[in-house]
Write a structure and sequence with these properties.
This protein has five helices and eight strands; from the N terminus they run ααβαβββαβαβββ. By secondary structure, it is α+β, with helices and mostly antiparallel strands. The protein has two domains: about 40 residues; about 160 residues, Roll (Mannose-Binding Protein A, Chain A). Strands 2-8-1-3-4 form a five-stranded mixed beta sheet. A three-stranded antiparallel beta sheet has the order 5-6-7, with no helix packed on it. It is globular, with a radius of gyration of 24 Å. It holds the Pfam family Endostatin. This is Collagenase NC10/endostatin domain-containing protein. Keywords: Signal.
Length: about 210
């Protein structure tokens, strides 16, 4: 009987320890720590597609993604590039998950474009220029020399889901104002020939350098 009582007391103590551990367990905190470990060495590369295109020449979001992927593979042996475009189900805030908002944003030579992805989303950039897939550097100059990039807004300004080049259809676009350190937002007709910006989350920092 005494042995059985001792066993019961030990079992009860173990249950108390297990319950206490469960109460202290925070899965959100663990996920955050793991994400921090997994993304701490990552950076986000930005590189323009090497030629201008009208809004409808993107032929939809999926084909824009393919254009970035194939261009990245052809010029840099990296098929991980994606299109920095919004759609109805993919607003700018959801292009990357929140735990990646602390990653640095760089061009394909490794020069810092924005301290973090969060800063870039907020329109804060450095004076280092973008470099296109083919190695062409962006100009740092007056407004007339800026490159404008297709963006959309996830609602009505996406060139009819990136299928229309009709001059009455419009899309939100943006440019890099290096002199003021800001991203400038504008609206453009879908018939305009503008640029497509591609991005890649990469943990091999020197892969393009």
């Amino acid at each position: 009987m005494q042995a059985w009582l001792s066993f019961a007391l030990v079992l009860t103590a173990l249950r108390i320890e297990i319950v206490t551990a469960e109460l202290q367990y925070d899965p959100w905190q663990e996920d955050t720590q793991l994400d921090s470990i997994k993304t701490s060495d990552n950076v986000i590369f930005l590189a323009p597609y090497p030629r201008k295109i009208q809004g409808g020449e993107l032929y939809g979001f999926a084909n824009a993604e393919r254009a970035c992927r194939e261009s990245g593979q052809a010029f840099h042996a990296d098929g991980g590039f994606r299109a920095l475009l919004t759609t109805h189900n993919r607003p700018l805030s959801k292009i990357l998950p929140k735990h990646m908002y602390n990653l640095s944003v760089v061009n394909i030579e490794g020069d810092l474009l924005a301290e973090t992805w969060g800063d870039f989303i907020d329109g804060k950039i450095t004076d280092h220029p973008l470099i296109a897939m083919d190695g062409t550097k962006d100009h740092i100059g007056p407004r007339w020399s800026w490159k404008y990039f297709w963006l959309g807004d996830g609602y009505g300004r996406t060139c009819e889901h990136w299928l229309s080049s009709y001059f009455m259809d419009v899309a939100n676009v943006f440019a890099f104002d290096y002199q003021s350190g800001q991203v400038v937002n504008e609206i453009s007709s879908c018939s305009a020939s503008l640029h497509l910006l591609c991005y890649s989350v990469c943990d091999e920092y020197g892969s393009f350098l």
